[in-house]
Amino acid sequence: MKEEWRDNLEYGVEVSDLGRVRKDGIIVEPKEDKDGFSKISLKNRFYNRYEKKILDRLILETFDPISSSLLKEFKAEHLDGNYDNNELQNLEWRSRHSESI
């Protein structure tokens, strides 16, 4: 399977369906937080500030965007329960009230 890259204009990076992020052609390595989620520090180009983005959300926001007004109502769900597996096929938006979309 060929890796697909898409631009994320908000952060000025490319995001892959295999769960990787690159900036200026260089892969950005995520750091694991205390809860086991992979995070990346990126500059939000719209607000001109750095943010720590959870990788699973960044991938879904890039490949399966939903309205920014709804983002707080949904979480990224890892279908296999493995937080290290950030491939797009393993992720889906799920309502914080537990319904998948």
Overview of this structure, please?
- It is a single chain.
- With 101 residues, the protein is mainly beta.
- The chain has a single domain (5-95), classed as Homing Intron 3 (I-Ppo) Encoded Endonuclease, Chain A.
- A hairpin with a 4-residue loop joins strand 6 and strand 7.
- It is globular and about 35 Å long.
- The strands form three sheets. It has a four-stranded antiparallel β-sheet with strand order 1-2-3-4, covered by helices on one side. It has a three-stranded antiparallel β-sheet with strand order 5-6-7. Strands 8-9 form a two-stranded antiparallel sheet.
- The model has no long low-confidence stretch (mean pLDDT 92).
- It contains one helix and nine strands; from the N terminus they run E-E-E-E-E-E-E-H-E-E.
Question: Can you describe this structure in just a few lines?
Answer:
The protein is mainly beta.
**Helix percentage range:** under 10%
Mean pLDDT: 92
Class derived from helix and strand content: mainly beta
Task: Tell me the series of helices and strands, N- to C-terminal.
Answer: EEEEEEEHEE
Radius of gyration: 13 Å
Question: Which range does the strand content fall in?
Answer: 35-45%
Number of strands: 9
Uncertain parts:
none
The count of helical stretches stands at: 1
Determine the N-to-C terminus distance: 25 Å
- Highest CATH level, the class: Alpha Beta
Largest sheet: 4 strands, antiparallel
